[in-house]
Amino acid sequence: MRFSLLISVLRSLGPVVIGISLGFTLSLLSVSWSEDACSPDSKEGEAVSLGKDGLLKGARKPNSISAVNDVTSEEDFQPRIVPYKQIQPSAPKKVFRAKYISTELGMRERLFVGVMTSKNTINTLGVAVNRTISHHLDAVIFFTGSRSRKIPHGMFVVSHGDERLIWNMFQTIKYIFDHYINEYDWFYFVQDDAYTEADRIKALVEHLSMDRELYMGRPEEFIGGAMEGRYCYGGFGYLLSRSLLLRLQPFLENCRNDILSARPDEWLGRCIIDYTSINCVGEYEGLHYHHYELAKNSDPSKEQSEEFKKALTVHPVSDPEQMYRLHRFFTEIELQKTYDEIAKLQAEIKNVSVVAFEGNRSAQWPVGINPPFEPKSRFEVLKWEYFTEEEIYSCIDGSPKCELRGIDRMDVADVIDTAIGELNKKYMPIIHLKKQQLINGYRRFDPIRGMEYTLDLQLEAVNQKGHSRSITKRVHLVRPLSQIEIIPMPYVTEATRVHIIIPLTLQDRSYVDHFLEVFASNAFETSENAILTFLFIYDPVEAQQVSQNDIFASVKSQITVYERKYPAVKIPWISVKTETPSQIKFMDIISKKHPVDTLFFLAEVNTNINSEFLNRCRMNAINNWQVFFPIHFQEYNPDVAYHNQPHPDTLDLVKDAGLFDRRSFDETCFYNSDYMTTRSRMVADVQENEEILENMDIYEMFVKYSGLHVFRAIEPALRQQYLYEVCNPRLSEDIYHRCVQSNLESIGSRSQLAMLLFEQEHGNST
């Protein structure tokens, strides 16, 4: 009984005991025992190192990695600080980047044109070639053997210094290798007695692969027929690929030494054939080099052959007049092709618009022109101007009606003539229309599409039988904006020193203190590259009393104070005596005291000048090109703008604080050289009428005599305090009227003046 009970217990515990025993056994088997050499300070006979906790240090834990210093006691570990040493960065490798992305990507221009000329024809045929092709092509260079001191304006001429024809051709090809071989894909050479249709030669190379070794022109047999192959006749020009020239380059010197010829085009042809085995071709892959030989004294307008109309080049041209007639003929052909293409595209747009979602309404009129501007609010609605053939009812000076004159009168006349012409195109020969009068005319400028016109015309309609009657027709016209063109401007820099001229009279003394305070913070403290000069204006009486009672003594003392405060600053002044102050007379004196490359800024004492404006003065005044007349922001009279309110210390650029004074031309930026040149052109008129110096300002002088661009623009960085200006009645009527209007408009806005009148009337009534 007991035995069976014991067996049952062992049977249940047996697997557990066996498992535990097996686990201990496997654990002991997995432990590795090591006998390391004892350290010098260990006890004799110690085979195993004991740790602080009594564990065997010689035993390695299962699945652990043994270390070199495992036998070292933890108590022997001594921490140490490793000092941080900053790694000096090595100098970065300088990476060369090309100036232009096209250079880095290996992109080249398409066509180079070289014109072979001579000292006898460069000023006649050479100039004619330049005027007819240079504005169509990117690079046109003239090659000649003679060296001349006088080179025609606007031409790039390379002189080789030798009149020998073969030598000139050799030097021309060598010049191409030295300067342009890596910049162009195709090289076109032509004589100056040939007319080239530039757009067609450009279209030809656009369809040619740049990696082809091609020698293209009018093929010609060699003289005598002794040599096989054909060369390109130079009179009609010839086209060489860059690949062909690169292949020819190593043998150019051999050609010069070994090949004898009397003609440069034949010499080059023999060189190409001998060393590249490439012959001249007149057709390649369906593309033809069309040319036409012009008969002596022939009239281009009478040539009707298809070969002439398709020609790339026409040769020979006897004189510049014939060159210009050829250019006109081919230009008219290309222009007519353009008109035909436009008409074709317009017809296609109309046909496609029929199947559009909105039908024909989806096609804007005129076809191909941007749709009209759509205002988002009533403030964006474009204003129409009403006009007749004699008057316009929208005047610059605010008058309700003024005479239609100048460019406006020419514009209206041109629009009416165009309208009559278009109507006759539509109705002739059934009806012929003649203008009787313009009943109503409207125009507005749309910034998206151009100038729009609506005309109500009274016309006389004459039918084929000669019967006529008067009808009224309304027409709509658009003068679209032309293609935007980038006009190159001379290089200017913001590092130019500006000489600021401030004229002062007796009435201006009270504003000097504020002007110097503002200018010192904006210029003196920031070391602005500008020099301030005061011009003291005395009348004869004040000039006689200057030793006893100098009216500008306080101003001069203020200048001394600022010069002591800013030792690096010098503020010069100039004293003048005159009965009638005049800008031109003052500048005559100042101009003589400065170099010709001086940049002047003529301003008023109530003007606040800062660095932002001075930089724009430097950028917009361009020597021998442009003068700058900024439109300053004129502050209103503070007693009107802030009636019964405290005056603010600083004013924002808002409509209640002031306005841009378009009637003031007192501030201007210009170079001394431009002033001196313009002033010299007035000499003859001044001798006839000396008063012209007194009744004309600098603005009128530059407009009338300079021939420069007069740039006038709103300048938000240039502000003026309110100052009632004393208008000089000796000035011209227009200048005096502008001065009076400027004074009136700078008092306050219409709403502010209306409120003052309302308060005044309300006070009087009570």
Automatic annotation (TrEMBL):
EC numbers on record: 2.4.1.-
InterPro entries cross-referenced by the UniProt entry: Chond_GalNAc (IPR008428), CS_glycosyltransferase (IPR051227)
Enzyme class, spelled out: transferase
The keyword Transmembrane helix appears for this protein: yes
The keyword Transferase is annotated on this UniProt entry: yes
Places the protein is found: Golgi apparatus, Golgi stack membrane
One GO cellular component term: Golgi cisterna membrane
Membrane topology designation: Single-pass type II membrane protein
Keywords attached to this entry: Glycoprotein, Golgi apparatus, Membrane, Signal-anchor, Transferase, Transmembrane, Transmembrane helix
Gene Ontology MF, one: glucuronosyl-N-acetylgalactosaminyl-proteoglycan 4-beta-N-acetylgalactosaminyltransferase activity
Record family assignment: Belongs to the chondroitin N-acetylgalactosaminyltransferase family.
The protein, known as: Hexosyltransferase
